[in-house]
Known about the structure:
By secondary structure, the protein is an alpha+beta fold.
Amino acid sequence: MRYRLCLPLAASLACLPAYAVQYLSVEQVQKLAYPDATAYRTQDVALSLAQMQQVEKLAGLPARSVNWHVIGAYNGDKLLGYLVLDDVIGKFELISYAVALNPDASIRQVEILTYRESHGGEIRLPAWRRQFTGKSASTGGLTLGGGIAGISGATLSASHLTDGVRRIAAIAQVVLRP
């Protein structure tokens, strides 16, 4: 009898949106993006003024920061790619994400690490994130409506994440590509 009163309460709590959900740690995204990696080496990349201008020209938006934290994934001495971690504003809160890049600066995959908004979580859908795969700053197609489809109800999250990925693709093109 007593538990019958708890069911409606439990059901109503289950419908509440989740805030600040961490989906992946850095270690998990490393293994997910580069399953064959035997080592990860971090490096801090500092952009020069000329590189920042190149990034802005390629991405169509400011480089935003001089300093970037990059993780190289290796199998022995062979470079498998780079992982770049970043945050963008969704509507009000930060979205933490990672862009895995191939050695040629093309996008390998995009993963959401932490999502803090009450709405717009559809950007976590694998089908939406797969749109970035294989694209690079030099090939284009990294704009919302110009290669990346928008998401109704997640307009700002999708737009800001797309801009962030485009910025990282430009940085990879300018600084990381051999």
